[in-house]
Amino acid sequence: MVSQKKFCGAILVYNGDGAALVEIKPILRMAGVSKRYGGVRALEKADLEVRPGRIHAILGENGAGKSTLIKIMAGVVAPDHGKMLLDDTEVSFSSPAAANKAGIVCIFQELSLIPDLSVADNIVISDPPTRLGLIDRKQQRKIAEQALARAGAEDIHPLSLVKDLPLSRRQMVEIAKALARKPRILILDEATSALTVADVTKIFGVLKRLRNEGLALLYISHRMHEIAELADECTVFRNGHKVETYKAGNKTDTQVVELMIGREYKNVFPPKAERKTLENAPVLQTKGLTWTDRLKDISLTARAGEIVGLGGLDGQGQRELLLALFGVLRRCSGDILINGKKVIINSPVAAKADRIGMALVPEDRKTEGLMLPMTVRDNLSFAALRRITNSGIVNRAKEQKLIDEMIALLAIKTASADIPVGSLSGGNQQKVVIAKWLMNQPRIILLNDPTRGIDVGTKQELYVLLRKLAYDGAAILFYSTDYDELIGCCDRVLVLYDGKIHRELKGAEITEHTLIASALNVETDRVSHP
Amino acid sequence: MNAITARLSSFRRHLDPAVITAFACILLLLFLGSLYSRNFLSPEYLLQQLKVASFLGIIATGMMLVILLGQIDLSLPWVVTVGAMMSSAAAGFGHTGAMLAIPFGIFCGVLIGLVNGFGVAYLRIPSMIITLATNAVAQGLMVVYTGGFSPQDSASPTMRYLATGFIIPSIPNSVLCWIIVGAAAVFLMNRTGFGRSIYGIGNRERAAYLSGINTRRIVLTVFGISGGLAAFGGVLLAGYASKAAQSMGDAYLLPAIAAVVLGGTSILGGRGSYLGTVAGVLLITLLQSILSVMQMPEFGRQIIYGLVIIMMLLLYGRESLSR
Amino acid sequence: MKQWRFWFVEHRGTLMALVIFVVMFLIYASNHPAGFGANMVQTASNKGVLLAFVAMAQSLVVITSGIDLSVGMVFTLTNCLASWLVVGSPAQVILGIIAVLAVGAVCGAINGCVVIYGRLQPIVATIATGAIYYGIALALRPFPGGTVNETIADALTGKLFNFIPASLVAMIAIVFVVWVPFSRSVAGRAAYAVGSSETAAYMSGVPIKRAKFFAYTLSGLLAGTGGLFLTFFTYTGEAAYASGNAYTLFSIASVVLGGVSLMGGKGSAIGAIFGALAFRTIGDLLFVFDFDPLWQPLFQGVVLLLAVSLSAFGLLRVRNRLDWFT
Fold this sequence. Notes:
CATH topology of the domain at 3-103 and 183-261 in chain A: Rossmann fold
Strand content of chain B: under 5%
Largest sheet of chain B: 2 strands, antiparallel
Number of strands of chain B: 2
Oligomer: heterotrimer
Strand content of chain A: 25-35%
Radius of gyration of chain A: 25 Å
Number of helices of chain A: 18
């Protein structure tokens, strides 16, 4: 349906409707690029064209090859095969610095800022202005102020230390830093994942302005609505292959998702709890939980058999609430009640003890949930050491039995229990994090954005699992940044705003509309009960 | 059948190239030594080496546990000395003193270790600093106690017997001590929840803490064990030389760290096997012995010693490039 | 106003070290039997400067989040070397000084190469190179001995205008020649970046290898300067294992007192100097209070223990226990 003809150096693309678009010549072309990590094929004969004045979105599940693709472009890894042509000359970058020099700048998912240096130091880090061989601080500050202004972040003082800035501000610094390098191609890898809505709007404005200035932008994001708003063209990757490039707006969300997962997109959520479980006695209750200025007077209940969602914009105290319940935060005021009895939880050790039976799936599985170099076995048994040891000595048979059960229950795809957990895919790693807590048979499960960065297939499995755990009697507190999940999974949703429970939504009240409205603290008409 | 393959695969997994290289180097050293003199392969010589190695082996065991946590124990030199001096001192107090000499020496070491552990685990002071400080304090205490001279107390008969005697003919008791300590360490590391926790903390303390591991208590305990083992090493050394001496522990800090690291334990923690440490200890002991047998002057020994460690580490101790 | 606040945040560690030093020195000076005077300052300065050089050397490496356990041995080696070379005619003396400093820098550069290209952990690598340097020192001076050109030795350890200690002036000059340009250079900035977050530095295209190489080499140079001055003070060379080790350990203590974070990326060589001076003054406090010198090591140890424990007060402010692990 799509055909191309060469025409005076420009490429004419005829799409399905037969309308011809005069295309601008690409700055960067990748042709037949492949990359393997060990035995794993990360990218297979991928092609991509990047044009100036365009925002090009890259879509795909985790492990589809997106990150590998941009890492090759940014000079972080070298491709095994294939060519990369910049302005029609073949290039290969030995380091990120070389790519920068050629005008390709990437903002990575993991922040590349140096915490102990100032904002200005960071912005000019790769090429500081010098005078007589020494760094010219005045000039540096001027450059930094200009770059911050261009990124729309004038409120950040160039002399403040990066480590003193909140995450969303750091992301703005990251963008300013990229702009200071005067890129021709700017790559943003999940660059908005840590930003507030206000910042995202601002960033979009900046990105559109940059596009109009003639920059080529590559935009990688999981957030579908962002792409719809921003992109001019989209390319979908799946299993290391490029699937299709299409003009933005030519496909429905469902079609796009089908391209990404290569199968039909069905209703992914299991049925919710029966109404009567919502009358069970609360397992977990808090009264007036308060911590610094991040948590204000939180009173909530969670019953056995129920999944309670935590909603709201990112950073409104949801993470702190989970950490406070798990005994990580010091000097919390207010009460926590388990089965109606007041308890004091002052460490994760206390939280997982039998009389409380809590589990926390933490925010970052790589630094908080797992020991990546250790084996699946070691990781799985880590939270449940007490259950598999007799007076401190590991009962191997018991351990093996429990581990086999867990691997089967969660369908963890691993060659053996004795390989490093770091060699599993992201989704399977997250399964291990959940499984390691299930080994401890928790009654209260706290989940901190457990589906972040994992593929659609695994997400679906997790939804089913959560519902099963709830059905078996667990009380689940589920924080997610994805509204669809909250709508699809939760029996109730507590929307947090500025450290307070702003609103509680039940049953059919949980809709995208009410969630977003209450997250933004705007009044809406209540949805009538069915 | 299944169990056998599982065992096999787990054995293969534990077989670290570092350990193999270390053992290969030991064989190479013995071979080179035997070219110099036939005596190098005689059982007497090898047993003597094993005996000398056992002191370092016991001390390095504690160091290895600490390194597995991702920490380091620089208080080792004076904890060794404290163990030696305090046990010898106790031995001077008649019959009861002689009986309590060994436990008392170890107890003092454990005490210093616990101070280290408290500083690292509860006050979150970098181990390099707190152990440096306790080392200075231990030194200060010993200098005040002895008045700066070699102490006059001598080791108790039990200490001497433990260091130089034979319960089993032809196997020195000190080697038996090392075997017992080593077996206990292997059991601790591989078979207990405590051992798992050590590896976990060494890999990522944050994740261990969030898994509901009592990380602070484990760090405290490990430093206590390390202090106790260092002091026990000191006790044996005092028994070996029949008395304690000023700064007798100085010669053990670098070899202990080197032995652990040459055995493939990552200095960043979380990875390593006891077999490797055994190999590292034997390797260093043999190297020192061969250099002294060849009547290499002290300066040459130091230089070769340093070069060999660097060479060995370059062979297999490098950090991986990928980040 | 705001500008000033940022400056304060950046230099907090150094200022703390300065305050500790000033307080300690005031206690020391006001109780000194000879009273506060040029001679007392000169003696104190001569003792302090030696450790200050070694501490500066250590701080450069620590800023890159490394550690140099060979620094005391480079100090010893250059001391032994200077006791051979810095003799004779003025031209020979100057050549000798250059040679000694060059050897120091080469030692540092070797450390750097082993760490950068050998990709070994600094702590183990420098233990091994330290043994080598000590071996060479021992080869040079199996027994204490040798001489040094007394004119230059006296000039650099005496007083300027009968008042200012020359060693102090020399050290300040070295700070301006070595540290100030380094800290303002691209390599220096890169050294901080590497120490703060090596991954981020790599991602940002920071010249990591160059930064580390410079830091280690200059560290060797500074340790060599320290060794040179030791020769000027003692007129001899001695391959003393205990003293070399003590300098290594004290340099780490000084660096920490001076507000340089062992995690890297924070602090400055100036802070390390104040840390070293404070550490020396603490050690000497006992003398002015007329205690038995036997108590000195214990006193020094206890003060060090207390000083490092003070940092634990910051823990009380931590309200999220996860912050313990960063």
